[in-house]
Amino acid sequence: MKREDLKTRLFHPERKWFLAAAITGLLVGAVLISGSIRDTDNPLFCSLASYKTRAASSYDPTPIQLKAIVHYATSRTVPQQNLAEISISLEVLKSKAPCNFLVFGLGHDSLMWESLNPRGKTLFLEEDPTWVQTVLKGAPFLRAHHVPYRTHLSEADDLRNTYRSEPNCSPNKAYLRGNEKCKLALTGMPDEVYDTEWDLIMIDAPRGYFAEAPGRMGAIFSAAVMARHRKGSGVTHVFLHDMDRRVEKMFAEEFLCRKYRVNYAGRLWHFEIPSAANVSRGVEDNSVRFC
């Protein structure tokens, strides 16, 4: 997603060229498709939900889509996710009406995610305030916020084993804003995050490859809480990257639930999490487990 992986992962030139070409083609195809649709019953992008009432000019490529095409066509830096992984999220974006898309992480794929959700709300959350400033200097049109974390990767096992003893971490009582008693709850996010019902949540940050890193425990837990609190219809789509790592897999199975996993590719898992209001009541009301 960002600078730490660019320093630690080596890309073969052939792979970088192929992925850059594939991303550019994907974006060009998206623009051409959105420009040619007139009367069809299948929405192809978030912004096409009300296509029948829009003028033809509304299908013109957005400035961000055009910037993305030029960027990925000319840049030597490519998104960390591979084409198969990106395609899973794209298929959901193509099927949703104006999307609220929350992304944990800010980096070289952010322009791509922004361009694939034209006229929707895409918000990026980043652990490093300096990195936020660096990225926004080159892409000031992105919406990004710094978010502090209260955890360290070295605490992952203890957090998983002890969260059930804190009532404010339990499935039927957990909340985020102001929940200081539950260390897994992200309490330092902007009000906009808490006040928005997110259709898609991408977790590809914070860092989680060394002991003092924040790890993704809090992001995974918080995504599960937001999904369970959904009041609108449908499910919340959660995408979790780096599923080859032990902590990501352990917390995904604890909070996002393997039974809700609907797709995967490479190191990306896709979950469709229903609102707690739409899950059969009974035993779950007194449960200390999310899954």
TrEMBL record:
UniProt keyword Methyltransferase, yes or no: yes
GO biological process: methylation; xylan biosynthetic process
Single GO MF annotation: methyltransferase activity
Record carries keyword Transmembrane: yes
Location(s) in or outside the cell: Golgi apparatus membrane
Alphabetically ordered keywords of this record: Membrane, Methyltransferase, Transferase, Transmembrane, Transmembrane helix
GO CC annotation terms, alphabetical: Golgi membrane
Topology in membrane: Single-pass membrane protein
Entry's transmembrane regions: 17-37
Location, primary (coarse class): Golgi
InterPro entries, alphabetized: IRX15/GXM/AGM (IPR006514)
Domain of life from the UniProt record: Eukaryota
Pfam family, one: IRX15_IRX15L_GXM
Coiled-coil zones: none
Name used for this protein in its record: Glucuronoxylan 4-O-methyltransferase 1
Organism from which the protein derives: Tripterygium wilfordii (Thunder God vine)
